[in-house]
Amino acid sequence: MAIGDYISRKRARRFAIALIVLVPALYFAPYVTLFFIACGALDISRHFKVTPEMAEKYFLGNGIPTWLLSPINLFADMLSARNLGMYRLEDLPAEHRAEIEACVKAFVDNGDLIKARVSEVLGDKKRGMLTFKWYAKQQDITVRIPAFEQEYRYIKTIAVSVFNTREKTSWHFGPLRLTFRVLYNLDPVDSDQVFINVDDKTHFWNKQPLFVFDDTLFHRSVNDVDQARYCLFMDIVRPNHLQPVFDAAVAAAALVASSFKTVFYKNWSFIR
Q1: Nearest CA-CA partner of 219 in 201, 192, 237
Q2: What are 247-266's pLDDT values in tens digits?
Q3: pTM given for the model
Q4: For 31, 145, 153, 163, which has the most beta carbons within 10 A of its beta carbon?
Q5: How large is the greatest C-alpha to C-alpha distance in the chain, in angstroms?
Q6: Do residues 72 and 95 share a domain?
Q7: Are residues 117 and 175 located together in one domain of the fold?
Q8: How many CB atoms lie within 10 A of CB 143?
Q9: What is the mean pLDDT of residues 50-62?
Q10: Crossing angle between the packed helical segments 30-44 and 52-60, to the nearest 10 degrees
Q11: Residues 144, 199 share a domain
């Protein structure tokens, strides 16, 4: 079967399933269904450039969980400062910066130790995730880095994301806007073939190793060189106007964090 035929059949199947679900939902629960459609439309409109591919994936593909969580994400927006989408370190409050800088320093200082552990187990697997802390829960791991074991006020997830050579993700959406994603590339390759796309922007690691962004935006990561890519991978509570509410919401999200792994990281190998 040609690739084009496969894509066409996959797309037709998506639309058929959507109709099978949407028509009864509009009949039996019209107000609830229209509410979610309106929230989804408002949520995706935050992008600078909404494309047909993006809309299809959001409403019919891997963005469906993000769509279903859109009421929570939009409420989080109401309780927060204006969302810039992509951030420099200096855009964040001093308390957030201090925690990020402490973890980045520990990551750089222990880079060789981390690489050695990953090389032992990754092999020819395409992507690996060495997890130290997941939604504030300390992970059982053989690599011990004291800075990653501290109880941080804002940082909730600490891991190392590893892309093997010539590896990339598909375009996708993160689930929740309670946190922002923080990435720091260890030893960036001097190449414009190692980057991350977010919405209509491209961030090149060789230009700036640190990148903070709203991962509910449409994005993908690419490592199109013959060298593995190591990134410190953190989730940090987004700056907001009502911290107790965010603390409670993040704590609730932690209860289902293992399900997030299954849905959003099914193509990753988790390393202990």
Answers
A1: 201
A2: 999 999 988 877 776 677 88
A3: 0.94
A4: 163
A5: 59
A6: no
A7: yes
A8: 16
A9: 94
A10: 140
A11: yes
Contact 36, 65 (CB under 8 A): no
Amino acid at 32: V
Per-chain mean pLDDT for the chain: 93
Give yes or no: residues 63 and 136 share one domain. no
* Number of domains comprising the chain: 2
The pLDDT tens digits of the residues spanning 144-166 come to 999 999 999 999 999 999 999 99
171, 258: one domain: yes
Cβ–Cβ under 8 Å, residues 239 and 80:
yes
Q: Return phi, psi of residue 252, to 5°.
A: -65, -40
pLDDT number for residue 185: 98
Q: How far apart are CA 79 and CA 178, in angstroms?
A: 10
pLDDT band, residue 2 (cuts 50/70/90): low
What CATH number did the domain enclosing 242 receive?
A: 2.60.120.330
Residues of the domain holding 55: 3-78
Shared-domain flag, residues 12 and 108: no
pLDDT in the model for residue 46: 96
Residues 141, 110: one domain?
yes
Q: Is the pLDDT of residue 12 over 90?
A: no
| Residue 7: pLDDT over 70 | no
Cβ contacts of 184 within 8 Å, gap of 6 or more: 104, 107, 209, 210, 211, 231, 232
